[in-house]
Structure formats: C-alpha cells, structure tokens
Amino acid sequence: MTQHLSSTALVRNGVKDLHAEADIPSGYGKTESYLLPKDPSWMFLFWEITPETINYVRNQYGSDTLAEARTIIRLHDVTGVEAFNGSNALKHYDMPVIFEARSWYINAPEAGHAYIADIGYLTENGLFILVTRSNMIALPPGKVSDIIDDKWMIVEADFQKLLKLAGADYIGLGASERMQVVDQRWKLTELPNSYLPSSSVNSSWSSFALHTAKNEQDEDIWLQADAEIIIYGSASKNAIVTINGKEVQLKDGKFSFRQHLSAGDVIDMPIHARNAKGDKTRHITIKALREQGK
Amino acid sequence: MGQEKGYLALVLHAHLPFIKHPEYPDFLEEDWFYEAMVETYIPLLNVFENLTAEGTDFRLTMSLTPPLCNMMEDPLLIERFRHYLNQRVELSGKEIERTKNTEFYDVAKMYYDKFRRYQDLFENRYHGHVLTGFKKFQDMGKLEIITCCATHGYLPLMVHKESVHAQIKTAVNDYRLRFGRSPRGIWLAECAYNPGDDKFLREQGIRFFFTESHGVLHGTPRPKYGIYAPVYCPQTGVAAFARDMESAQQVWSAESGYPGDPRYREFYRDLGYDLPYDYIKPYLHSDGIRRNIGMKYHKITGKVALDQKQPYNPRDAREVAATHAGNFMFNRQKQIEYLSTLVDRKPLVVSMYDAELYGHWWYEGIEFLEYLFKKIYHDQKDIKLITPMEYLEMYPENQMVQPSMSSWGDKGYHDVWLNSGNDWIYRHLIKSAERMVELTNKFPHANGLLKRALNQLARELVLMQSSDWAFLMTTGTAKEYSTKRTKDHVKRFNELYEQIQGNRIDEKYVYDLEQRDSIFQDIDYNVYSTAEKDAVLAKY
Q: Domain containing A68: what range?
C-alpha cells in the first residue's frame, strides 16, 4: 500500500502541525447508546457503558444476581407505537452480547419496521435490567409498496413494465460500478507506486470492467452476497491473545474482531492464546471462504 | 407545451470536500480542486459560453455544493489555482516546441489552446471568480443551480435533527450569499434521503430534491408513473425526482459505457511520469515526486500495457464523442417514445451524474455534453431538455408519495458510509452534534469571543460531518487523509467545547481555527437551536 502523502511529506521549513499528534477519546464517559439504519435488514448499534453505571446496577440488584445474568441486546419492534414505555412493543428479540464489544450489527427481523434497542442484563428468572436504551429508527421497506392510490391508478401490466424499465430488479447494483469510477478520481495521489508500466497493468477502464464483472451481473439472473465475520471469545484474564498474528486487546478477558469477506477471499484465522510466562498455549482456527461459481 | 413526446433533465452534481491547508505552502490534496477546476468546471462554463454565443438553447441542472462554492471564492485557493493554471500554460507552451514534427504535436497543441482559453475565461471574463460565470447562466434561465447539504453531510445517519436542520439552513444561507436568491432545489448528499427530512427542506423554501430510483419506486403508495414523473412528499409537498438507471448505465456501465472507447484519452499515462525529470520537475509538487500533472498524450488503445499505448488524436476523439452523443440522444428518443405509450402524460427522464466524471475522469465527456446539447436542440423534435422547476410548472399536480429511505451508494442504502471500516466515526459525530446542541441551547445570545468560539464549533462539526471522509475510508483511497481529517475536527471540536464549558476560551486558538477551517464565514451557530428544530417539526 502506498504511503499516502498528505501532511507528512510536504512539511518543510520546520512547519509543524500542532494538531497532528494527539488522538481522540475512545468514549465520553456517559452511558448511552445509538441505533443507526444501514439497509432494510441491518442496523448498527453502538454504546458506551461506564463503570459507574455497572456499579450502580450492581448495588441495586446485587452482585450475585448480575453474576448469573446474561448481557443482552433486547430489540423492540415499535412499529406504529406512539410512545414506547419499555413494555408496549409489538415484539422483542433478545441476542447475547458482551458490553465490551461497544458496537454491534443487528439483523432486522422485518424490513420496513421501526426499532429501539435496549442493552442490559437478563437474569436467570427472566428479569430484564435496562442499562441503556437507544433512539428509535424506522427501516426502509426494501420493496415496491402494495398500497395503491385510488386517485392515481394504473393498469397493473403497464406498472410492471415501468418497474422493469426503471431497473427495479437491479436496485443498488449500478451504484457499485458508479462508486468504483468515482473512486478513481481520488486515486491520483496514490499513483506513484501503482503506476507500473508492465503488462500487468491494463487500461483503467478495462481493468475496471474485469473488476465489476465479479458482480456476476447478467440480464436474467444476478447474485450478490457479502459477509462480515465477527470473531469473539474469551480467554484467561492475563492471557496474550493473537488473531492472525496480531495481538488483540482483552477487556475483562473478552475480545471481538470483525473482518469483511470480499469476493474470492479466503479467511484463515488462527487464534492463539498464551499465558504470561509463555509456557502454556491454546489454539483455535476459524476458516471461511467466499467462493464464486457460475 | 410543444410537440415533443417527453423530457430529459440532465443533472450534474459538482462537489469536492473543503480542503484548504494554509499551514502548508504546498498541499497535495488541494490538487483535487485545481484539477477539477481546469478539467471540469471551467470547461463546462466554456461549453455554456460557446452554446450561448452560437444561439443554441440548453437546460442543465447543476449542484454546486457549499464547500465547492467556498473554495471557489477562497482568496488563497484562487491564488494557488492561478499559479497551477499558469504552470499548465507555460508547460504546454514548451511542449508545442518540443513535439514539433512528432506524432504528439496535435495533442500538445490541444492542451495549449485549451489552457489558454480557460486562462482567458478565468482571468478576463470571470476575474478569478468562476461562480459569476455560473450565476450568469442561471440568470439567463439556462442553468438551474441547486444547493446541497452544507458540507455534504449524510443526513440519514444524523440522530439529532438539529444537525439536519443546520446542514440545510447553513447551505441555503450560503447559496443566497453567492447567487443572490434562494435555491429552489437541493442535491441531498449521496442522494441519501430519510423520510421526514423534507420538512427541513420545505422550511427553507426548497421545492425539489433527487433520489435514487428506488427512493420513489419503493415509495408509499406505489408511484403511478414509476420514476418517470416527480412525486410530492405528503406532509410538505416537496417534490422528489428519481434517477433513471438506463441513461446512467449507458455512461457508467463497465462493459458498454462510453468512456471505455479505445480512442479516448488514457487516464493513467501521464506526462508527469513520461518526461525527463529535470524538465518536468518545476511542475511537480515541492517534494519532487513524480505524479500526474493532468497532461496525457496517449489513448486507451485497448487492453495493452501502459507503455504500449498509442498517441492520442484529438480529432478522432472528438468524432467519437459526437457519435456517443448521437447514440445517447437516440436512446433517449426511443426510451421516451416507449414510455409515452405507458403513461398518460409527457414522461420525464432524469439523468444524474457526478460532474467531475465529465472532463476529469472521462476527458471527452465535456465535448460529449456540448454535442448532446447541440443535437437535442437542432437535430430532432421528440425530446426536450428541461429543468425540474419547468416540469413542475407544466405539471403542478403530482401524486403524493412518501419516498423510501435510500441513497445512490453501493447496494442502495447506507453501507458505503456505515461499515466496519468507518463505523467508529459515528460515536464522535453524534456526540459532537449533541454537544453542539447543548451549548447552543445554553448560550442563545452569545457575543464577542464566545460567539466566535460557538460559530467555530459549528464549523468544526459540519466539516467533521462531510460524507467524503467515510466514503474515502471505505474505498481505501486517501484513507489516511480522511481519517486524519475526521480526527482533527473531532479533536478541535472537543478542545473548543472544553474551553467554552470551562469559561477559558483561548482567543489565539479560535483565531487559528478560523484561518484553517474557514468555511462559512457567516455561519450562525443558532442553527443548532432545539427550539428552531422543534418549530419546524411542529409546522408540517
């Protein structure tokens, strides 16, 4: 990967960017959570839970209760609910989560519905202890509406033709091509290393064509599938854990790691744990493959 | 209404993120602006000038985003662009001599003529201010300039609606300053629409916006005309125009798109690499590293290595552009003819593109547009170019449809701006917005230094919210720069926030930020007032 030249290489005459070094905080010291829409079937939830909040809940409910409780995300379907009070959702769905993950992608049970996510403890006797509640979001339907307007009627067969013309079967696909081209215009500054006058580099447009052909787009049938793999687990508190050779941070003995799987990717992730002395080890390997056939 | 069967609305989205680094004498990413100026924005103005001079009428809708307008009016960037352009004129002048009696003479001459012409327009017609050029054609009724979210902020991922209100209101105020009237339309950044955001558009007097096809196709109830007529948002009556995929694909498609023609200019074979080092060095950046300088002498040729590319022939390329323009028009005629058998009014096809595709990426795209305008005006009577407002005036009655959440990004929603590579930014973007609202509500009538600090706080927030940073993190290009920009603005925001909260505002710090992050000189932090946001929501 090209070392992207920005503030570093052009610094001259001892001009120093006063703002270059410091980093930004990992959190803001307030227990809260936010839910964002991603597409008709996915949402993104992120949160911060402070030690003070955990202590408060522990004092309220007792350490023993919490020790045996599971930590979960409780997703409420609040479609059409005027004022959500914690118990008037149409349905709710529970999923285990570790607080330390700090964010999670949630698969929406139904497109077009509205959701609120709670994070908290679910005790052994089924009591839910709320730690933080998100904002509400409404997801898009992801399909043509069934509702027909009396004032604006159209012959069904003609409407189907209009849909086909508008590319209703290909929603979102043309956009990926577009994005790659738009992306080219940012690439200027990276050319020094990618500019290789050898036979491996073809014209930008033709290599671009090869690239997008991976979408397997065809007039009659197309398929697109991507994956994001979340690897999570726990280890002895003082263990040193590596995933694919890179050390991961343990928080209370837990870890999580997210990896995108693109076309043709093979993921082979050896996970190693060793104790501080280095004389005892444990290994687990997770493998995944995105294979494309015809 | 004439005898035409339907209409074509061409829409170009011109945008660059606000990139200005006065702290460096020379900054690489500023080139994005200079390149787009000389390859897209001024060449487009040149087309408008030519068409007007020869009496060809045309209609075009174009967004000029607030960051772009701010850069076009920034004295430092104007000065640096002037230098950039002078250098191109100088180098291409030398090149005419050097290439005499070679196969590259024609293309060298082409660059020289173009750069001279653009320099003449820039200096003598627009006096360094290209916006006056765009304004002129808007005032003539040929060009509809629309605005965009203040910093191209991605609205559906903003939790605090004060942020949405601020993005729209700040943009509209800036537009008034530049163009002397209110904008009638807006390009929502990335065409990202969230149901209900139209209330904030309506409040600012905006009459229309654009969505990706499924924004309207997946609307409720189902849209009678599909995407071939606008719909009105139910509570506000703001019109949504959806993008036509067929005409988009014709240009973008990897297999059949026009820009891949072998006779067109090859983007990656650049003089910055080809010419002897000592000769080209004065035209490189101060670090002396070879990079693209924007002059390219070869054509795409075919699937061959870069060193096998053949010389570019400007005349051949022009002919191809004319042929492609004819093909594009022919396809629109056929499309509209067919559509008019399905719908009971004159259909509208909305073709939307990034402006920088034309000229910068697809070099001959500018000539393509010029030919297209001429052919549509002179060669046929089936279709006519139109602006969204003209169509609404012709058909004021439209179906009420609530458009669906959508964007024109990959997969049609928010994936590009929200994925495992960039999701970390939202913790900071949302927290900063919350804090901005908090301070605005706390100090509604600030004066003096406190007011300056709050206004600068608002600038840091809107700059942090540019969707470009998340986009660049996803595509992997300029990831380092976009990550740094996000963090810089977060850090500056937090520092200022602490200073304001602690009643210890450092005037020098505020001044320093005012110089660097100087977008929206007239910003008013009160756009983040909760009362103002609530009033809008209560109204519609």
A: 32-138
